[in-house]
Design goal:
It is built from 13 helices and 2 strands. It has 288 residues and is mainly alpha-helical. Among the domains are: 32-93, no CATH class; 94-185, Serine Threonine Protein Phosphatase 5, Tetratricopeptide repeat (Alpha Horseshoe), CATH 1.25.40.10.
């Protein structure tokens, strides 16, 4: 038989042999091997493998398991959990923009999911984590761009409004106070910049923003006394006095209240709060 005629017979023999090996040799496996990762036969097992990798801080490997579950089992509940876990992997790797996209997509696609508030909170938290740092080798955070700080404030405010009963509300409120404090510090830093240059209208604009949006962050004394100075420089005594009276309304017993009353004068300052009456002396104490 010539080689040309023998070749088809040889190919057929090889194919039959491979088929026999597949049938009788037990080469079929329950697991899939893709690259250097071996995936398990069901979604739960793969989620467990992903969780083990995540706990070991091998976030890239964990993400591959979660992505596999999300893609291969899209109609199972595990796929939704995998979506959240993928966001956690990006968050843990400081890939905050990617994490934000994943969490926001989860909120949009699964608005009634029991963990939708977790996704919304983590999406808001990405802004907070991406805020400028205060490393000593860099300029203070108050001097840097505040875009992410404002993003964190808006996102956390929205979260608290939409999910008032979430278990993450206490942490969200804590973050919101810190964020507002950072924004107040920035506005005061800019106001000081303008003050040194006698640009009093700009000083008023910045300090008014703090009074309106970031009250209670610990800067009321700087804000209202700064407004008094700026309006005085502009010869607007009416508004200068209004700034001091506003301070006294907020802090009638504060250590700087006396200074505010002195600047206003006895005819302009509201009366100080009455001194609380002394506690009655117990008869037993009086006889001792």
């Amino acid at each position: 038989m010539s080689l040309r005629r023998a070749f088809p017979v040889l190919c057929l023999s090889v194919a039959l042999a491979l088929a026999a090996c597949s049938t009788f040799g037990g080469s079929k496996k329950d697991d899939d091997v893709v690259g250097d990762i071996t995936y398990a036969a069901d979604a739960e097992a793969n989620m467990k493998l992903g969780d083990e990798a995540f706990e070991s801080e091998n976030f890239a490997e964990a993400a591959r398991y979660y992505e596999y579950v999300k893609t291969k089992y899209p109609f199972l509940e595990a796929a939704k959990t995998a979506e959240l876990k993928l966001g956690d992997c990006d968050f843990a790797r400081d890939r905050f923009i990617e994490a934000r996209d994943r969490f926001q997509n989860f909120v949009r696609l699964h608005p009634t999911h029991p963990k939708v508030d977790y996704a919304a909170f983590r999406a808001a938290l990405t802004h907070y984590k991406d805020m400028p740092s205060d490393l000593f080798i860099l300029p203070p955070a108050s001097e840097k761009d505040q875009q992410e700080v404002r993003g964190a404030m808006n996102a956390m405010s929205d979260f608290l409004r939409i999910y008032p009963d979430s278990r993450y509300v206490p942490e969200a409120k804590k973050v919101l106070v810190e964020v507002k404090t950072r924004l107040a510090e920035h506005e005061i830093y800019v106001a000081d910049f303008y003050r040194r240059r006698d640009r009093w209208a700009a000083v008023i604009g910045r300090l008014t923003t703090v009074a309106k949006n970031y009250s209670g962050t610990g800067y009321d004394e700087k804000v209202y006394f700064g407004l008094h100075e700026a309006y005085s420089q502009l010869k607007d005594q009416k508004r200068a006095k209004e700034a001091l009276r506003a301070y006294l309304v907020l802090h009638p017993d504060d250590r700087d209240a006396k200074r505010a009353r002195e600047l206003l004068g006895p005819d302009e300052a509201p009366p100080p709060p009455p001194t609380p009456p002394a506690a009655p002396i117990d008869a037993a104490d009086a006889g001792s």
